[in-house]
Design brief:
Blueprint (H helix, E strand, L loop, with lengths): L7 E3 L4 E3 L7 H55 L2 E2 L12 E3 L1 E5 L5 E8 L5 E5 L2 E2 L6 E11 L8 E10 L17 E8 L6
Antiparallel strand pairs: 1-2, 3-5, 4-9, 5-6, 6-7, 7-8, 9-10, 10-11
Length: 197
């Protein structure tokens, strides 16, 4: 004895159909729409995570290059014996600013630090032409050296100031790979304490 007919069950609010009839077009569109909304949400989360990761990596590379360059220059400047004859020094309040500075180190060798470009025309901070920064990862957007002392017998105060920016690899279209629009600023002042007077 069958309690319900095989094909359909009629109720006052809805109709239950036999499962072998399939889905209607409206039901398929509803399911596809739900999957699209969920998919867009998941993709936006993944893209946001990648963008944050790219920016973090770019800033880390810029910080590493800048810290290395400023550390190397500060150490040699602090221990240098004299300024090269071509270097002009202003006063402490009004130092002379240039894009390079030349020093005579403890061994009597001349070392020139400069804001220049390499053979591929990429901006680098160089020591006697050898790059202190990775031209494939970072470039300087501002770069200068300053020299100031109040009297010829005073120790010169050498200022180093530069801003580094991440170089886009070309494959990334995210604007966040650039550490900042003007670059991360590095600056310090170093007193030449081994100056031979």
């Amino acid at each position: 004895m069958l309690l319900f007919p095989k094909k359909t069950i009629h109720n006052s609010l809805f109709i239950i159909r036999n499962s072998n009839l399939g889905f209607t077009f409206v039901e398929l569109l509803a399911v596809i729409s739900i999957f699209l909304v969920v998919g867009v949400f998941v993709v936006s989360i993944i893209v946001s995570a990648f963008r944050g990761n790219n920016k973090t990596n770019a800033i880390a590379v810029v910080q590493a290059n800048g810290t290395y360059a400023i550390g190397q220059m500060s150490k040699l400047i602090r221990n240098s014996r004299s300024l090269d004859n071509s270097v002009q020094c202003g006063s402490i309040d009004n130092p002379i600013v240039a894009n390079s500075i030349a020093l005579i180190d403890v061994d009597g060798q001349k070392t020139t630090y400069s804001c220049t470009t390499d053979n591929n025309n990429k901006p680098i901070i160089a020591s006697n032409g050898a790059s202190l920064t990775d031209a494939n990862s970072v470039k300087w957007t501002q770069c200068s050296f300053s020299c100031g002392r109040n009297t010829p017998s005073d120790f010169p105060v050498i200022g180093i100031a530069f801003a580094l920016q991440s170089v886009s690899n070309g494959g990334s279209t995210f604007a966040d790979t650039i550490a900042s629009s003007s670059g991360v600023v590095f600056q310090t002042s170093v007193i030449m304490r081994n100056l031979m007077r």
